[in-house]
């Protein structure tokens, strides 16, 4: 058994809506902060008597402010990745040029040249981030080689020893790779988690809608049963009383047949609506059978053994158990065992299969969203997803107060779900409450 949930499109889940990589307003705000810092640094340097190419520096600062004003005058629009790359490239070129005009690697503010690529790593894809990273490394190198020197108030050149300059260059190169790589990795994991949580919410909402629909169907079937029984009784009496009217006999026979057909339909609807939203308590065996039912006809023998206790019938718990059972069935050779028992403090549900078991390298990551890549998953027969189903199941079960443990047996994989008995047990003799109302 391995991580094998159905992909979102197979379960009717909508894809996470695509959002802007980064807002132009955010880039403009960050640029205003940079412009303020550049102006303040220029003023302080002049106050200290440091000599540098003032006119070109001011020209670059004004160019950056002009870019922001131009963006401000543009009509509001969504930001594309290409547009974001162009804006970050402009910032990179402006900061690199300032660095070259103010001492290059001897400039203590040279570290700020890493800002554009770090922002790119948090908002753009890997290819675009790598391109900006390489451009940053190239511009840092050029700024270091062709830098105009800084001079103090006495006219002496401010410079560092060649070894220190080389070390500063190497530190900036490492900084480009580390900050960009770290920011991109963290952002990607947050994005995957956000997408998985979105899928979890969609799965739970879908399950609750189905439960509610089942409750309305069951209530309607129950309420319509009485008037249909009355119609059937009256039709039978009329058929007896009008036995001497052959011209009406066929009509009455058709009426009785239609009433019986309606009764059979309502009886079927009542069975289909057994998942009444207000049926909040059910025997443990029934809940497990409900969770396993969609996978009962897939050629794998499902055996369920549960204690005779009543528990809360939570659609989220049923959906989560269904995902765990699906994983077991997907990788079982011939058999899946579901065992449930309670002790003095906890209820334990153990799901075992006779398949190959969880990959040892992934045991520590089971329950994380997308712990495997699609290419490796497609190479395994029966593998349909990338761990999203287990993430959904784990999230829903933990919300219900359960703790999960994953492991391998001999043979096959094992998943144990444990609830504090006080959180899951319920009184099966309590009133069910009123059925949902429906239009007459």
UniProtKB/TrEMBL annotation:
Record-annotated Histidine kinase domain positions: 219-423
Transmembrane regions listed in the UniProt entry: 29-48, 54-73, 85-103, 131-150, 156-182
Subcellular location: Cell membrane
Keyword terms of this UniProt record: ATP-binding, Cell membrane, Kinase, Membrane, Nucleotide-binding, Phosphoprotein, Transferase, Transmembrane, Transmembrane helix
Entry-linked InterPro entries: 2C_sensor_his_kinase, HATPase_C_sf, HATPase_dom, His_kinase_dom, HisK_dim/P_dom, HisK_dim/P_sf, RegB, Sig_transdc_His_kin-like_C
Pfam families from the UniProt entry: HATPase_c, HisKA
Catalysis performed (reactions): ATP + protein L-histidine = ADP + protein N-phospho-L-histidine
GO molecular-function terms, A-Z: ATP binding; phosphorelay sensor kinase activity
Coiled coil: none
Main location: membrane
E.C. number: 2.7.13.3
Organism domain of life: Bacteria
One Gene Ontology cellular component: plasma membrane
Membrane topology designation: Multi-pass membrane protein
NCBIfam families: ActS_PrrB_HisK
This protein's name: histidine kinase
Source organism (scientific name): Paracoccus alcaliphilus
């Amino acid at each position: 058994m391995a991580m094998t949930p159905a992909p979102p499109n197979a379960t009717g889940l909508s894809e996470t809506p695509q959002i802007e990589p980064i807002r132009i307003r955010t880039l403009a705000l960050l640029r205003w902060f940079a412009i303020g810092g550049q102006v303040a640094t220029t003023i302080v340097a002049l106050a200290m008597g440091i000599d540098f190419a003032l006119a070109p520096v001011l020209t670059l600062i004004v160019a950056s402010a002009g870019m922001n004003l131009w963006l401000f005058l543009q009509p509001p629009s969504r930001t594309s990745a290409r547009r974001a790359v162009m804006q970050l490239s402009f910032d990179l070129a402006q900061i690199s040029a300032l660095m070259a005009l103010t001492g290059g690697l001897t400039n203590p503010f040279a570290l700020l040249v890493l800002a554009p690529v770090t922002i790119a790593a948090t908002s753009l894809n890997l290819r675009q981030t790598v391109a900006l990273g390489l451009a940053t490394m190239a511009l840092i190198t050029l700024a270091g080689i062709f830098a105009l020197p800084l001079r103090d108030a006495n006219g002496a050149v401010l410079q560092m020893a060649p070894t220190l300059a080389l070390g500063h260059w190497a530190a900036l190169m490492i900084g480009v790779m580390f900050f960009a790589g770290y920011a991109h990795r963290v952002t990607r994991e947050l994005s995957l988690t956000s997408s998985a949580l979105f899928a979890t919410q969609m799965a739970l909402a879908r399950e609750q809608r189905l439960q509610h629909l089942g409750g309305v169907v069951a209530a309607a079937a129950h309420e319509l049963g009485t008037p249909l029984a009355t119609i059937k009784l009256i039709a039978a009496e009329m058929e007896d009383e009008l036995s001497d009217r052959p011209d009406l006999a066929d009509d009455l026979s058709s009426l009785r047949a239609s009433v019986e057909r309606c009764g059979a339909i309502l009886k079927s609807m009542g069975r289909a609506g057994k998942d009444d939203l207000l049926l909040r308590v059910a025997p443990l065996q029934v809940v497990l059978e409900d969770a396993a039912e969609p996978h009962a006809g897939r050629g794998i023998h499902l055996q369920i053994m549960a204690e005779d206790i009543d528990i809360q019938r939570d659609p989220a718990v049923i959906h989560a158990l269904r995902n765990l059972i699906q994983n077991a069935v997907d990788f079982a050779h011939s058999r899946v065992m579901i065992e449930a028992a309670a002790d003095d403090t906890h209820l334990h549900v153990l799901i075992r299969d006779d398949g190959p078991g969880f990959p040892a390298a992934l045991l520590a990551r089971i329950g994380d969203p997308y712990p495997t890549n699609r290419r490796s998953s497609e190479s395994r027969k029966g593998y349909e997803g990338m761990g999203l189903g287990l993430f959904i199941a784990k999230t829903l079960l933990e919300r219900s107060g359960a703790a999960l443990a994953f492991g391998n047996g001999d043979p096959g994989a094992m998943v144990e779900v444990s609830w504090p008995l006080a959180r899951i047990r319920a009184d099966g003799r309590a009133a069910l409450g009123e059925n949902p109302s429906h239009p007459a």
